[in-house]
Amino acid sequence: MSAIRVQGLTKCFVVKKKSAGFTSSLKSLFKPETMVKTAVHPLDFSVEQGETLAFLGPNGAGKSTTIKMLTGILHPSSGSAEVLGCKPWADRKRLAFHIGSVFGQKSQLWYHLPAADSFELMSRIYELNRMDFAKRQEDLVERFEIGPYMNIPVRKLSLGERMRCELAAALLHRPNIVFLDEPTIGLDVVVKHKIRQLILEMNREEGTTVFLTSHDSGDIEQLCKRAIVINHGQLILDQDVATMKRELLTHKSIRLQLLEDSEPLSMPGVETVEHTGQTMRLAVDTRRVSMEAVLARIVAACRIQDVTIEDPSMEEIITHIYARKAGVGVL
Ligand SMILES: Nc1ncnc2c1ncn2[C@@H]1O[C@H](COP(=O)(O)OP(=O)(O)OP(=O)(O)O)[C@@H](O)[C@H]1O
Predict the structure, then answer these.
(1) How many helices (H) and strands (E) does the chain have?
(2) How far is ligand 1, taken at its centre, from the CA of residue 315, in Å?
(3) ipTM over 0.90
(4) Are strands 279-285 and 270-276 parallel, antiparallel or unpaired?
(5) Which of 309, 321, 318 shows the shortest CA–CA distance to 284?
(6) How far is 301 from 262, CA to CA, in rounded Å?
């Protein structure tokens, strides 16, 4: 059975037109002119129960608007959506018992209360049986290793500690689907890894469907089997992540800050994009050379002060998708 089925889903907003100049601004204050902005064009896709889907797109592409329609927060302008057999905006309350959500930039835990109090309140909201709640909480606390933080006000926790509590809270009522919006944003590498492991574990063991938005290609590669890319509210790619990785996530960028001037690095599969004094930027074609080999070569050839490794930006990936559709190579 499909966990999510979307057909011709659209969302338009009526927005005020911005006028330039003092007179026009004054006029629009009394008689505002409006225009219709289409945030989501007719969108069609479905997600199977237990799937792990990355829902991607650049800023303003329409991801949050789509998630808001799928969780019942927004009514669509047209089209239909079924989430676990419910029409989200009509059955919002019923659906809330079966879905969970984590928004990396927003907390669903009460900020001034310890997480334990939020868990208690949520158990009442979700009408959990006392015994089930106690057992589930114990399991999640152990699994997410959040025992030491449960009785500290959430505002005093580090971002990583809070995110583990957030995720555990979202899973308290055993949701069939979790909507994760940038769940690892701002976290360090170790905590990111831990959070990803926990999400995968829940997907494997409880069959939880994962609907993820992220700008972090590590989240996409490690968590999801399938990716949908939208741009300007339109679906432009629906493909498995392994293929996407092979075809689109093929380049990494290495930025180096050196302690002393060095010769340009010459290596097959590595292009020096920028080299001024002690800064260097390299583009690595990971199909031709492994990052391990490139980093080993850099360490042998240069004295490094700092190194940053970046994945292609969402904008670069989108340019590539369009170019590929048009039959032009870009990378
Ligand atoms: N309530 C609203 N009123 C008017 N326009 C809106 C409203 N909500 C969203 N939009 C517009 O709809 C478009 C899609 O926004 P949305 O927040 O869905 O994008 P997004 O893909 O989630 O972006 P981001 O990655 O930056 O969060 C944007 O152009 C945005 O300005």
Answers:
(1) 11, 13
(2) 17
(3) yes
(4) antiparallel
(5) 309
(6) 8
